[in-house]
Design goal:
This protein is of the alpha/beta class and 247 residues long. The protein has 8 helices and 11 strands.
Length: 247
């Protein structure tokens, strides 16, 4: 089903008097995608609306960014914050990944020498290769993937012009959402994301979860969509207005 969220009032109507929890991805969802990922921030209006929503109901963020990076970009209080594609969350500890530290350090160093064209973003665990600013990246990406596929201890998550190189563990954004659903049996969740990594949440079949994609895509498992990233502001305003009406 691919419904523009505005045409989905029935979803909202069944949620009256229910505990609600809104969970967002960051890049491409709350913040516009920019060519330099270091410069990705929410528009001030988005920031204000998110803060307002946080005063009405539970709000969280699950992102591919590391937790420390994410915290620099968000000023409002959140009920959940999860980084590095679910590897950092209240449901797991980074101590579990200490054994990988040296391996990733050396791997990143070796790749930097072999493939200086990529820009490298270190995560708390693992790292990300960015190729948004490389014009003919196909061959380069195939070569690096061929090399990385030889390591069974790695999990490679492809995103929008990025390759996330992480430990081969079951954690992803869907894993965190499953934990949230399990631990909050009375709560109804909304999850809003824009990328392939968000499909791990979109594909969860649970009547307490409404998934929303930024941008329509027939390949996506999300139930609803918002036309584009700018639409997040209207979505937030609508939700704030709706919650005010039912509280
Ligand atoms: Mg995203």
């Amino acid at each position: 089903m691919h419904l523009e969220y505005k045409k989905s009032q029935f979803f909202l109507c069944r949620l009256q008097k229910k505990k609600l929890f809104f969970v967002f991805d960051f890049d491409g969802t709350l913040a516009p995608i920019v060519s330099d990922p270091n410069k990705a921030y929410m528009r001030p209006v988005t920031q204000r609306l998110l803060e307002k929503l946080g005063k009405q109901t539970q709000v969280g963020i699950i992102s591919g960014r590391s937790l420390s990076d994410l915290k620099k970009r968000i000023t409002s209080k959140l009920d959940l914050i999860s980084g590095t594609h679910g590897l950092e969350s209240p449901f797991s500890t980074t101590k579990e990944y200490k054994e990988y530290e040296m391996f990733f350090k050396e791997l990143q160093k070796a790749l930097k020498e072999m493939f200086p064209e990529f820009s490298y973003e270190k995560k708390t665990i693992g790292f990300t290769l960015h190729y948004r600013n490389i014009q003919d990246y196909q061959e380069l990406v195939s070569s690096v993937l061929e090399l990385l596929n030889a390591f069974p201890e790695l999990k490679i998550i492809k995103g929008k012009k990025v390759l996330n190189i992480l430990p081969n563990r079951p954690h992803n954004k869907g894993w965190v959402m499953q934990k949230l659903l399990e631990q909050n049996p009375e709560t109804y969740f909304f999850y809003i994301g824009d990328d392939t990594t968000d499909e791990d949440v979109f594909c969860i079949q649970d009547e307490r979860l409404v998934s929303i994609r930024i941008g329509k895509s027939i390949k996506s498992s999300a139930l609803l969509y918002i036309n584009n990233q700018k639409g997040i502001d209207n979505f937030l305003s609508d939700i704030i207005f709706f919650i005010k009406g039912i509280m």
